[in-house]
Amino acid sequence: MATHSYTAQDLETYLQFAIRLAKMAGPVIREGFNSRFTPERSALLIKKGNSADLVTEWDQKVEKMVRAEIDEHMKGHSFIGEESVAAGEHGALTDAPTWIVDPIDGTCNFVHGFPYVAISIGLTINQEPVVGVIYNPILDQLFTAAKGKGAFLSTINQDPRSEGRRLPLSHPHPPAPLPSLSMALVAGEYGSDRKAEIIDPKVKSMRNLSARDPLPEPSARKVGHAHGIRCLGSAALNMMCVAQGQFDVYWEIGCWEWDVCAGIIITREAGGIVVDGCGDKVNDAQLLTGRRFLVVRACSGNDGSILPEDVAAAQKNIVDEVWSVVENLRLKRE
Ligand code: LIP
After folding, report:
1. Rounded distance, CA 176 to CA 244, Å?
2. Are residues 253 and 296 in the same domain?
């Protein structure tokens, strides 16, 4: 049972606060990104669990700054941040208003100068994502949403609602229902945990999403023969490509609630859906903490030209197809 009530005005206050946090963090992330080839660069990297799981002094600096603001201005709210959990905090999700933050999503991109880097700021209440702000300060793209208020793309100096563009983008027509996975542009990621028992089923799944022919084995899964597979290296920005209507599908096993919390509400407000990556029926708390995500884009613009039941049927069709080709991989929460 939901234990925390809130008003539309509360959500607006939280949204404006999250935008302010993104405005503070942007220049710091950009400064780190632009100074990566200076002689001090060797001090940039701190390895986490393995050589592909990177964190930089900027991840830690940005999270500290954002958290200090939340502690000061959002009394009684909880906080879950990638770097705080990495440093040993428990990070349990409860019904309390909880800010779920990835200070730099796409840290590997940040280190290599690939401009798909973003701060991701989500807020859950009663374990449901209700506010999301994702900001890529390198490309100056600000994605924002609050529950029931729509999703917008703007730049940091625009008012998202009046000057921004409503999502999904229409170029020039609203996104139409996708007849099958074979017509889809799909995003997926290898992730940072490259142990054989994790990477092998993921690679097999990506293979089956894109392959024309099933594997030559008796229990081979079906294939999707998608138009293409893309890996941006940032869960948040993969989701924003789905929210805009540029990617049709995003599938990933292994990312965490800070990678996706803001993305879930922005995608939903853009008419997309986010479900378990491998076929479980889950509620939002299980989805957020389950580490397996399947995201499908809107099948209609904001003009209501396609009936909601036709949109839902088209999205379900794609979800079922993806579930039938990917491996059922379950990852631990350590
Ligand atoms: C990364 C994600 C990426 C995923 C990695 C990792 P980080 O986040 O956004 O898409 O594949 O496993 O979680 O570490 O850059 O914040």
Report:
1. 13
2. yes
Select which of 56, 107, 124, 144 is catalytic: 107
136 and 84 within one domain: yes
pLDDT in tens, 68-111: 999 999 999 999 998 889 888 888 899 999 999 999 999 999 98
| CATH code where residue 101 lies | 3.30.540.10
Active site residue 248: no
Beta strands in 126-189 (DSSP E): 128-136, 141-146, 151-154, 165-166, 185-188
Question: Would you say 105 is a known binding-site residue?
Answer: yes
Helix (H, G, I), strand (E, B) or coil at 248: coil
Nearest residue (CA) to ligand 1, atom 16: 105
User: Domain count of the chain?
Assistant: 2
Give residue 259 CA to ligand 1 midpoint distance, Å: 7
What is the tens place of the pLDDT at every residue in 110-155?
A: 989 999 999 999 999 999 999 999 999 999 999 999 999 999 999 9
What is the domain range of residue 57? 8-166
Name the active-site residue from 59, 259, 269, 321: 259
266 carries an active-site annotation? no
Which candidate, 212, 224, 225, 230, places its Cα nearest to that of 325?
224
Residue 1: inside a domain, yes or no? no
Burial group, residue 171, by CB count within 10 angstroms (0-12, 13-18, 19+): exposed
- Is any ligand 1 atom within 6 A of the Cβ of residue 191? yes
Please identify which of the residues 19, 104, 266, 306 carries the catalytic annotation.
Answer: 104
pTM equals: 0.95
CA-nearest residue, atom 3 of ligand 1: 234
Last residue of a domain, one of 166, 191, 211: 166
Which ligand 1 atom minimizes the distance to the CA of 193?
Answer: 12
